[in-house]
Task: structure prediction
Amino acid sequence: MYNAKAFSAASASSPLALDTIVRRDPTPNDVQMEILFCGICHSDLHQARNEWSGVMPTVYPCVPGHEIVGRVTSVGNGVAKFKVGDIAAVGCLVDSCGVCSECKQSLEQFCATPTLTYNFPDKHTGGVTYGGYSDSVVVDQKFCFKVPENLDLAGAAPLLCAGITTYSPMHHWGVGKGKKVGIVGLGGLGHMGVKFAHALGAETVLFTTSPGKKDDALRLGADEVVISKNADEMAKHAGSFDFILDAVSADHDINAYLNLLRRDGNLCLVGAPEKPLAVAAFGLLFGRKSLSGSPIGGTVETQEMLDFCGKHNITADVEVIPAQKINEAYERLLNSDVKYRFVIDMASLKG
Ligand SMILES: [Zn+2]
Ligand SMILES: [Zn+2]
Result:
């Protein structure tokens, strides 16, 4: 075991502050890395403040962070995939059972006993896992990914959660050339959705309540922007979409979007509104439409997504901050005041 620097929350109401945590020494299958960048995901804020106490009560101190990019500093003797000096990435999972049918198909996100990157029982230390708001981390090589060399490393960090969360459902439901795809909401997830849908060759339409986001959406790759509060604009697209990715976490009317799907179209939720959404059955019956959801992605698909990003030079649009500004960033996140992801520069933990 060794000591690492981290920014942690000591309780649901305390701001994040510099702390010392214990990490395991690398085992034969482990990769140890110096963390260079870590994205700030909205889940981090929920967990730091124990807002998911019903499902995943937070254990303190809590070190969030599951959008990690770092440089490999040591590897166990069973590691062939990485060598010292390589750039590697870690996302929302650091382990899974490895033997269930989901794990055998590299769909570890559906394993019944996964180990999440933070605030989850840690098999090695006996405590809980600590995330990427830290100067280093030790992770099993299976859950470490290669980062294409051409990518900006700060912009690559959010690919590990916001990226795979939007890429995976589009990949699964066959988004590509000849398909008309809608993205609902232009935030951390939505802006990645627009980039992926465009790069996959789909006709891409962004739905937003904010007319001020139009130019940015077009710049990010949308072919068209629809202001969802405008009923006439919405009506023009009735029955025309093959797939709609809904990245909104606030309460909203999904029936308005079900109406825009064509026969056998699919509306996939990747945002998680707090309260249940109302669904009109007739909106699904006519046209045999589907309502679905999708969480993160598995190990093989995460590497595929990173390789796809390398090929198309896709990264997140980020605002890089020092760790000392995490609390300020959380407040701005609550006001949707970020384009489109905060990323912590871990060099700020040095000295
Ligand atoms: Zn996340
Ligand atoms: Zn499993």
Summary: The pocket of zinc ion (ligand 2) is lined by residues 96-97, 100, 102-103, 111 (CB under 6 Å). The mean pLDDT is 97. The longest strand covers residues 30-40.
